[in-house]
Amino acid sequence: MPTDEPSPRTLPVPPRLTWLAAVAIRLLAIGAAVFVLGVVLWRLKIVVVPIFVALFLSTVLAPPAVALRRRGIPPLPATALVFLGLAGILALVGVVIVPPFVDQFAELGDATSAALDDLRTWLQTGPLEMAEGDIDELVESAQAQISERQDELATGAIAGASVAAEVAVGAVLTLVLTFFFVKDGDRMLRFGLDQMSAGTAADLRAIGQRAWRTLTGYFQGVTIDGVVEGVLIGTGLAVLGVPLALPLGVITFFGGYFPLVGAVVAGALAAAVALVTQGFVTALIVIALALIVQNVVTNLIDPLVMARTVKLHPVVILVAVTTGGVLGGIIGAFVAVPVAAVSFEVVDYFHNVKNPRRRSVPETETPPGDGG
User: How far apart are CA 162 and CA 156, in angstroms?
Assistant: First the structure.
């Protein structure tokens, strides 16, 4: 028999909750895709890292190669000349840096031994008033810890040998890829785009132009930043009489490729050397010098060389470098900012350029090796 009981009513879902659920699902899907992509790339890092480093080197080497080709030099000789020039610069840097490093390293060792003796004296006569026997006990305990971890050190040495082999293979692959990116980058790009539909090819060409412009601006910018920081820090250390001023300046230069974090590490290393060799006051002066140089570069140099190509807030840069370092170590920290900058350009392209309600932005940049 039919009953007169009313059927249960389905409550309507508020539109805002529906929108939030749709956004959450999309974010989860994007996060899962990024995670899987990250795992795959990390497993293939022996290939992925050389490709990325080769792209970085191409941003520096492609412009002079294109300039030579525009003067009538064929692609192969033009690329070879650029590589010979790079080899000459690296050889010159090695000749300038290695001898003073070898000469002053012994001085640094003697200064370190003297600093340890001063520390031992301070522990005995300073506010801690430690007995000599207690200090000896601490030293023996440290030595015992090192002896107990010899097996771990040996395992680490084996792992280090494996890493060294990977680095050697990666270095060779990087050089080969860089050579062909500089020589045939335009042909490789055209071949890839010819395999796609006209609409897809147009989108990928525009995205590629934006990515190339961003990578070029970023790496040229950090190179200029590194040169300025390295020269100023190295000169300041030399004036203060700190040993290894030139090598520390070079370390500061390479630290520029790890935004924010690299400057802190390089400054801390310089301050440590100053503390060991010149004392506490000189170390404070070095720290102040590093802070001043970093602020000069951040507020005066960066707006001139990178403002138009890398549109990332310093907080985004710091988070990107930290996340990259946690996930991929030094490699992850190196690639984090350019990857974030290129990702921003891709999102901006689809949001602003492809969106018919927004004004299109003209694209005029050229890919690596392009120029005839």
Answer: 10
- Tell me the torsion sign for CA atoms 255, 218, 316, 326: negative
Residue-wise pLDDT tens digits, 278-307: 878 888 998 999 888 888 887 777 767 665
Residue 104 CB partners (closer than 8 Å, separation 6+): 243, 244
Nearest-angstrom CA–CA distance, 220 and 60: 7
Question: Which tokens hold the place of 44?
Answer: 């293939």
Q: pLDDT tens digit string along 312-360?
A: 777 777 777 777 777 777 777 777 778 888 888 887 777 777 665 655 4
Contact 277, 243 (CB under 8 A): yes
Close Cβ partners of 15 (under 8 Å, ≥ 6 residues apart) = none
Query: Do residues 293 and 232 make contact, with C-beta atoms less than 8 angstroms apart?
Result: yes
Full-model pTM: 0.65
- C-alpha 18/C-alpha 8 separation (Å) is 22
